[in-house]
Amino acid sequence: MSRLVCPTAPRDRSARGRRLVLAVLSGLVVCAACAACVQFPAPESPAPVAFAVRPTPTGAETDVPHEPAPSTDSCNATASLRPGPMPEPAQMPTGSTMAGILGHGRLIVGLDIGSNLFSFRDPMTGDVQGFDVDIARAIAQAIFDNPTSVEYRVLSSAERTAALKNHTVDVVVKTMSITCDRLQDVAFSAPYFVASQRILATRDSGITGVADLAGKRVCAARGATSIGRLQQLQPRARMVSTITWADCLVMLQQKQVDAVSTDDAILAGLAEQDPWVELVGPRLSDEYYGVGIPKGEDDMVRFVNGVLDQFRVSGAWQRSYDRWLSIMGPTNGPPLPVYRD
Predict the structure, then answer these.
(1) Phi, psi at residue 146, to the nearest 5°?
(2) For residue 273, which of 260, 289, 282 has the smallest C-alpha distance?
(3) In sequence order, what are the beta bridge partners of 241?
(4) How far apart (Å, rounded) are the C-alpha atoms in residues 126 and 215?
(5) In angstroms, rounded to a whole number, what is the distance separating the alpha carbons of residues 195 and 44?
(6) Beta-sheet pairing, 217-221 with 238-242
(7) Cα-Cα-Cα-Cα dihedral of 303, 321, 125, 170, to 10°?
(8) Any signal peptide, and if so, which residues (predicted)?
(9) Is the pLDDT of residue 326 over 80?
(10) pLDDT surpassing 60 at residue 28
């Protein structure tokens, strides 16, 4: 390989010297140009490394300790207080719980805006809608003569009881199952809906029932009664808890859990969002949803039961079911109330 050497300029100031200087300068230009043209091989770069991290939803917990299964039989949990005479809207009895709610101008309702079909935010309008929302609006209509006099407080399943005990909400209408344990801390209306616990899995999972959940990761929202019941039915299931049911769906889609188990009404809302998941297996239990009310507010329990009676008899219950829950198939209608007085 030839090499270009750049000469040093001589100091002769004669004509001959000037010619030499010009020659030297020309050589320097050539040297510079040549240097610019020399290409050295670039160092080898390491091969690119790509990997995907599946983020775990905030607040998710794995290997949830065993919880007691919920009970409804030992205390006749679904029996409630008989409705009293219904006052005219906006004319609540003086000193009553309803009069206090009327006085502060709005019904404060605890619910979840991530429970598709029961309570969710419409992405187009921003309005909170669903079956539970229709129940809340019926209570507001009976108190204020205005179904929109409602303030919604978003609660996780685990926060419902505390919100009622602390009186940060007037009622909870959030797929809340009536159980003997919960009745120690809060009061309930008569049931307004009956759901059944089932299993949600991907279509290629091979899971067909509770027996197939041995050693599998099963998701449920923290505070749900479905955790204790599933642990009773399948002690070898590895329970994973999240803050919301939507988080369970995300973990199922990302293969971080193998199944989700809770009420079929909630699972149907998750399945509607993803065609690759399905409800499998027989019903595992019956879940009776009631309106949660602070303990000791018997007048409010009777009032809400009166509202629910009107909701059933007027056909509003069936219209709400047809609008939001028809994906679950035909219904035998609303549950009939049982009163203990």
Answers:
(1) -155, 110
(2) 260
(3) 61, 220
(4) 41
(5) 63
(6) parallel
(7) 20
(8) 1-35
(9) yes
(10) no
d(CA 127, CA 91) in angstroms, rounded, equals 28
Q: Are 123 and 132 in contact (CB under 8 A)?
A: no
Average pLDDT value for residue range 167-182: 96
Mean pLDDT of the chain: 87
Identify the pLDDT of residue 32. Answer: 44
The amino acid that residue 175 corresponds to is T
Distance (Å) of CA 23 to CA 2, 4, 12, 16, 278:
20, 15, 13, 11, 87
Assess whether pLDDT exceeds 90 at residue 153: yes
pTM: 0.80
338 token code pair: 């049982």
The predicted pLDDT at position 13 comes to 46
Q: How many C-beta atoms surround the C-beta of residue 193 within 10 A?
A: 23
Residue 199: how many other CB atoms lie within 10 Å: 29
**Residue 38 to residue 44: CA distance in whole angstroms:** 19
Tokens of 258: 């193998």
Given a contact cutoff of 8 angstroms between Cβ atoms, the answer to whether 80 and 290 are in contact is yes
Structure tokens at 101: 């709610």
One-letter amino acid for residue 285 of the chain: S
Domains of the chain: 79-194+287-339 (3.40.190.10), 197-285 (3.40.190.10)
Secondary structure (DSSP) of 25-39: HHHHHHHHHHHHH--
Average pLDDT of span 51-79? 77
Torsion of the alpha carbons at 205, 210, 213 and 218, rounded to the nearest 10 = 90
pLDDT for the residue 52: 54
For tokens 């129940």, what's the residue?
135
CA atoms within 13 A on the CB side of 104: 11
Three-state secondary-structure class, residue 151? strand
